């Protein structure tokens, strides 16, 4: 009986370490927020446009601020919906 429990404990430990290693390599795989991922992608695209000199700094700042305000408004609306329920 004790040998079976020890074997089961060893198997669970190995499986846990395997899962933990995957999580440590890509922690974003466990929890993803599609809303934030979309915002982050748009912001990265905007930064790339500025770095490639496709837009001026003034345009970059204006579009970045608009994007930030839009995201903040959407987050507030989402939080209000969650709190209302």
Proportion in helices: over 70%
Distance between the termini: 50 Å
Oligomeric form of this entry?
A: single chain
Order of helical and strand elements:
HHH
Number of helices: 3
Question: Biggest sheet, in brief?
Answer: none
Whole-angstrom Rg:
23 Å
- The total of beta strands comes to 0
Mean pLDDT: 84
Strand content: under 5%
- Structural domain tally: 2
Structural class: mainly alpha
Q: Outline, from the CA principal axes?
A: elongated
Low-confidence segments, given as residue ranges, are none
Q: Overview of this structure, please?
A:
- This protein is mainly α.
- Helices cover 82% and strands 0% of the residues.
- The longest helix is centred in the last third of the chain and has 28 residues, at 57-84.
Keywords:
85 residues; 2 domains
Q: Could you outline the blueprint of secondary structure elements for this entry?
A:
Blueprint (H helix, E strand, L loop, with lengths): L1 H24 L8 H18 L5 H28 L1
Helix pairs in contact: 2-3
Could you provide a short overview of the structure?
The chain is mainly alpha-helical and 85 residues long. Helices cover 82% and strands 0% of the residues.
